[in-house]
Amino acid sequence: MPANTDRDSNSAPPKPPNIVFFFTDDQRFDTVRALGNEHIHTPALDDLAGAGTSFTRAHIMGGTCPAVCMPSRAMLMTGRTLFHLVDSGASIPADHVLLGETLRRAGYATFGTGKWHNGTASYARSFSAGAEIFFGGMDDHWNVPATRFDPTGHYAQRRRLTVDFVTQTVVEQVCDHIHAGKHSSELFCDAAVAFLENYREDRPFFVYVSFMAPHDPRTMPPEYLAMYDPQEMPLPGNFMPEHPFDNGELRIRDELLAAFPRNPAEIRRHLAAYYAMITHADAQLGRVLSALRRRGDAGNTIVVFSGDNGLALGRHGLMGKQNLYDHSVHVPLILCGPGIPAGETRDAFVYLLDIYPTLCDLAGAPIPGSVEGKSFLPVLRDPRAAARETLFFAYRDFQRAVRDERWKLIEYLVDGRRTSQLFDLKEDPLEINNLAADPARAGNLARLRERLLAWRRETGDPCDQAASESA
How many whole angstroms separate alpha carbon 39 and alpha carbon 47? Predict the structure, then answer.
């Protein structure tokens, strides 16, 4: 039978876009120079923001354990809400279809490198290839206990007993080699560059680069630290020597990284090291983007950049992310690529768990029924499109919060004592002036308490916060 000559090459369906996803650890929303922070250097992210669309109000839903990154990453990869995870996201059951799984079913080659805090079996389901994988929460950036990819997900011969870097207790760790002397950000980006340089298949690829930086211990090549003089680092406007009351988590590990009360000079040193780690990670991210351009694929590749949670570093007298203030639940989010407006911003409310269905829409892949996130593709195309009206946040069983366009309510129930904070975010974006006791704001307080209760019911919040429900 002769070949069909009626169809020309232009009639073939377009190739789905490649996807490169950069995900950092503990990077706060306000740490990109192009988005307003003149004290930090992020040239690669600045270029990405100029070529793409930045979401200025992207958030996480919170965490059900002190290691907030674990449920945050589980929500990202499953598209599920906080209370519909299993064991805080430490493991992901088979019926929670992962982003990598969905893209594999859609014909993608999926490659992962870097931090994975959600179990080995789910990694094998997500990725068809990988390198320099770190199964854990945090470790020494210069001696990363990494492992090679195992498609079975068993890693049976790659387990060893080691001392946990955080708790100093003996734990079992998946590891088959340690890269002494190479920083984690360089290690993971080297692996991504190698994949891009050697990939020869016709099918589209999904590359997931998951940094350990800028999570502490904040170490980096000295030339990056030299870029930041601690004495010139401005203290945040909501710096406080101490938190004004017991929020239930004032002596967690993160909070013990600086002395009590907080000392301005010490906080400035932390900020300088934090910014230096971000600038170093930015340089490594730029190397991956350069490799993508050398391939000639940049025009048909969606690049996503985001982080798993924010960090206080002196704000409200806190150091960590075990709270529901904006500095801890607000994260950066930039998308760039075909069909995505260049040099624009969006102020729509989005969660990280919304990235999953959005990428499915951009890739032409079906969204699994297990996904609860909402695609923000309509907002990408039209900033006037309908979006979420409120956001809900939770931390463990004693902090809950809700916000709308202007107002935010945080409720605490610690040792039987209830504390409420009401902030007017239009007048007080740094969340300093608590208006909960102001009679003139009683209506705002009651309305947000009602919406908070509705959110708790909608998300299956298992915590019985009787004080909130009786309000």
Answer: 17
